[in-house]
Amino acid sequence: MIVFDLRCAGGHVFEAWFASSTAYAEQRDKALVECPLCGDRNIEKAVMAPQIAAKGNSKPDLPTPQAMKAALEHLAQAQAKMLEKSTWVGGAFAEKARAMHEGEAPVTQIHGQASLAEAKALIEEGVPVAPLPLPVVPPKLAN
């Protein structure tokens, strides 16, 4: 199989797979290849960057397990510091965040749980919320 970037006369560029260069040419000559955006069948190959395989002896620079562990620990410490003055509200998070946003409750820093639907609704209503990068153990379950 071979992939080509193709361009129609309208300037739309799209990608298509063919069994071979010959198969592409045969299909194009029979007007079987068409632009998925406008249906134009006047198709030519577009300029594309070649895919050059990496040398077999080169390895990507991946972090070591120790570096990943250190980064996660740093993130966990930063999150814990951020939550020091925050109150855990559990499953009442959406309700309490909405009440603060609407001026029905004093604005304080809170964290808790919300379903995906609740989080989306809060965002759509303009309530300033953000997910925490790491899970939080509720105070009742903490050792």
Question: Numbering strands along the chain, what is their spatial order in the largest sheet?
Answer: 2-1-3
Instruction: Give the percentage of residues in beta strands.
Output: 15-25%
**For the report, how would you describe the main beta sheet?**
3 strands, antiparallel
Unreliable spans are: none
Helix content: 25-40%
Indicate the mean pLDDT.
88
The general outline is elongated
Number of helices: 4
Order of helices and strands: EEHEHEHEH
Tally of distinct domains: 2
User: Looking at the chains present, what oligomeric state does this protein adopt?
Assistant: single chain
Radius of gyration: 27 Å
Using DSSP, what is the number of strands?
5
Specify the structural class. Answer: alpha+beta
Q: Kindly report how far apart the N and C termini lie.
A: 57 Å
InterPro entries: DUF1178
Pfam families: DUF1178
Would you give an account of this structure?
The strands form 2 sheets. Strands 2-1-3 form a 3-stranded antiparallel sheet. A two-stranded parallel ribbon has the order 4-5. It has 2 domains: 2-45, no CATH class; 85-141, no CATH class. Helices cover 32% and strands 16% of the residues. The protein is elongated and about 70 Å long. With 143 residues, it is an alpha+beta fold. The chain has helices spanning 21-29, 65-83, 93-101, 116-124, and strands spanning 2-8, 13-18, 43-45, 87-90, 110-112. The relative contact order is 0.10. A hairpin with a 4-residue loop joins strand 1 (2-8) and strand 2.
Entry keywords:
143 residues; alpha+beta; 2 domains; three-stranded antiparallel β-sheet; two-stranded parallel sheet; 4 helices; 32% helix; DUF1178
